[in-house]
C-alpha cells in the first residue's frame, strides 16, 4: 500500500510542463504514432480523422500516424500521405481541430522501403530498398494481408532526390499546420533498412561501415532541419525490433553512434521503442542509458508502459516523456485517467486497422 501511495504522490512528474525543442508540452504523456488505415480517397485525411485526433488533444504531444512522403513510400492500404495538395488540405483540418482544443501535434514522416507490395506501388513497380533482399513480412492491401514483394535496390543516383522528398514532406507538414515532424527510422522501414547490416549490403557510400549506413538518416535529418529548423524535428528508433526480419550484428554500437550523430544535428527529440515493437521489452541485452548518453535533447520512450512504469521512468530521469500507443486508442482522455488513477477502457484489436468510427472515435471519455 505504501508503494502505491508513493506512486500516487509522484504522478505529478508526468504533468510537469516541458519544452521539447520549439514546442511547449503541458505534460509528459505522449500519444505515439498509430497506423489505423482510415484515410479517405487519395490517401487523404478526413473529418473523421480530425475528430479522432481532437479527442486526444490533452496529450502533451500527439505524434500523428506514419504518413508516406511519396506514393512509393506506401506499404499498407488507406494510410495517409503528405505529398499532394489534397492531403495537405486534409491534414489542415486535423491540425486545426487539435489546436482548437489546445493540443500540440507533429507528423511522422514515413517511407516503408521494402515493406510493401506491387499492388500499392505506382504502376505496379517493385518497392525500393537499400538492397534487393525480400523481407519475410506481410502488408495490408485491398485483398487483405499478403506477403511483401521483392524490392529493387535504390540506385546511388536516386538518393539525392529521396532526401529532397523528405525535405519537401516536412515543408508540406508545416504548411498543413503541424508543430513539427518525426522522422520514422524504426520498425524495419526504409531508413531502418539502411541502418542495419542485414538489410543493407551496399558497397557504395551508403553501405558497409556504420558511418556509411547512417549517412542517409543523417542527410535526411540535415535536409529536414534545414527546411523547418532542427528544434521542430524528432527521430524514432527501434534498436531491437525484428519486424520484417531486420537485424544488425551489433545494435549497441550502431545505435550509440546514430544517437551521437542526431545530437550533433541538435534535433529536438529521440523517440525510442524499447525492445520488440508491441512485444517483449527485453528480447536481448541492450543498454538504453548508454545509447542516450551522448544525446542532449528530449528522450521519449515507448513500448508497454503502464502508469507506474511511466512515473518511474520520468521521476528517475531515464526519460523526458512517455509514449503510449494502444492505451490512447481506447482512452481519448488518457492523461486524465493516469492522473486520477481511473479505470482504463480496453482496446479492441479487431478494429485497429480499417473501418469507420467503431473502435476509432466511439471510445468513451470519463464523465
What does this entry look like structurally?
- With 367 residues, the chain is of the alpha/beta class.
- The protein has a single domain (18-325), classed as Aldolase class I (TIM Barrel).
- It is 31% helix and 16% strand.
- The chain has helices at 2-10, 47-55, 85-100, 159-175, 190-195, 210-213, 215-228, 251-264, 288-292, 307-315, 326-330, 334-340; strands at 18-20, 23-25, 29-31, 61-68, 105-110, 128-129, 138-141, 144-147, 152-153, 180-184, 233-237, 269-273, 298-302, 321-324.
- Helix 2 (47-55) packs parallel to helix 3 and helix 4 runs parallel beside helix 7.
Q: What is the CATH H-level superfamily?
A: Aldolase class I
Helix content: 25-40%
User: Mean of the pLDDT scores?
Assistant: 96
Shape: globular
Q: What Rg do the Cα atoms give?
A: 19 Å
**Structure annotation, total helices:** 12
Q: Could you say what the CATH topology is called?
A: TIM Barrel
Q: Summarize the biggest pleated sheet.
A: 8 strands, parallel, barrel
Counting DSSP E segments of at least 2 residues, the number of strands comes to 14
CATH class: Alpha Beta
SSE order, one letter for each helix or strand: HEEEHEHEEEEEHEHHHEHEHEHEHH
Strand content: 15-25%
Distance between the termini: 28 Å
Total number of distinct structural domains: 1
Give me the CATH architecture, please: Alpha-Beta Barrel
Strand order of the largest sheet: 3-4-5-10-11-12-13-14
Q: In terms of per-residue confidence, which ranges show pLDDT below 50 for 5 or more consecutive residues?
A: none
The assigned structural class equals: alpha/beta
Amino acid at each position: 500500500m505504501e508503494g502505491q501511495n508513493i506512486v500516487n504522490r509522484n504522478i505529478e512528474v508526468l504533468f510537469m510542463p516541458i519544452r521539447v525543442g520549439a514546442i511547449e508540452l503541458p505534460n509528459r504523456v505522449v500519444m505515439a504514432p498509430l497506423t489505423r488505415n482510415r484515410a479517405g480517397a487519395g490517401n487523404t485525411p478526413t473529418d473523421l480523422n480530425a475528430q479522432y485526433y481532437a479527442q486526444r488533444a490533452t496529450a502533451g504531444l500527439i505524434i500523428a500516424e506514419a504518413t508516406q512522403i511519396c506514393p512509393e513510400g506506401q506499404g499498407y492500404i488507406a494510410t495517409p500521405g503528405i505529398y499532394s495538395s489534397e492531403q495537405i488540405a486534409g491534414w489542415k483540418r486535423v491540425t486545426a481541430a487539435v489546436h482548437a482544443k489546445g493540443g500540440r501535434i507533429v507528423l511522422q514522416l514515413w517511407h516503408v522501403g521494402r515493406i510493401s507490395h506491387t499492388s500499392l506501388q505506382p504502376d505496379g513497380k517493385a518497392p525500393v530498398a537499400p538492397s534487393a533482399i525480400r523481407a519475410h513480412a506481410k502488408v495490408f492491401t485491398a485483398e487483405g494481408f499478403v506477403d511483401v514483394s521483392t524490392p529493387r535496390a535504390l540506385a546511388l543516383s536516386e538518393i539525392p532526390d529521396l532526401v529532397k522528398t523528405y525535405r519537401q514532406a516536412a515543408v508540406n507538414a508545416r504548411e498543413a499546420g503541424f508543430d513539427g515532424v518525426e522522422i520514422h527510422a524504426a520498425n524495419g522501414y526504409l531508413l531502418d533498412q539502411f541502418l542495419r547490416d542485414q538489410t543493407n549490403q551496399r558497397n557504395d557510400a551508403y553501405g558497409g561501415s556504420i558511418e556509411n549506413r547512417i549517412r542517409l538518416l543523417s542527410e535526411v535529418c540535415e535536409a529536414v532541419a534545414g527546411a523547418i529548423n532542427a528544434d521542430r524535428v524528432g527521430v524514432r528508433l527501434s534498436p531491437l525490433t525484428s519486424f520484417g526480419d531486420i537485424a544488425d550484428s551489433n545494435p549497441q554500437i550502431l545505435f550509440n553512434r546514430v544517437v551521437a550523430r542526431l545530437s550533433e544535428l541538435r534535433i529536438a527529440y529521440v523517440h525510442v521503442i524499447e525492445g520488440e515493437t508491441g512485444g517483449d521489452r527485453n528480447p536481448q541485452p541492450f543498454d538504453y542509458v548508454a545509447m542516450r548518453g551522448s544525446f542532449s535533447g528530449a528522450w521519449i520512450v515507448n513500448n508497454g508502459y503502464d502508469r507506474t512504469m511511466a512515473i518511474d521512468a520520468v521521476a528517475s530521469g531515464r526519460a523526458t516523456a512517455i509514449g503510449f500507443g494502444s492505451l490512447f486508442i481506447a482512452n481519448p482522455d488518457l492523461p486524465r485517467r493516469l492522473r486520477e488513477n481511473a479505470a482504463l477502457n480496453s482496446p479492441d484489436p479487431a478494429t485497429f486497422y480499417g473501418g469507420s468510427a467503431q473502435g476509432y472515435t466511439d471510445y468513451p471519455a470519463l464523465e
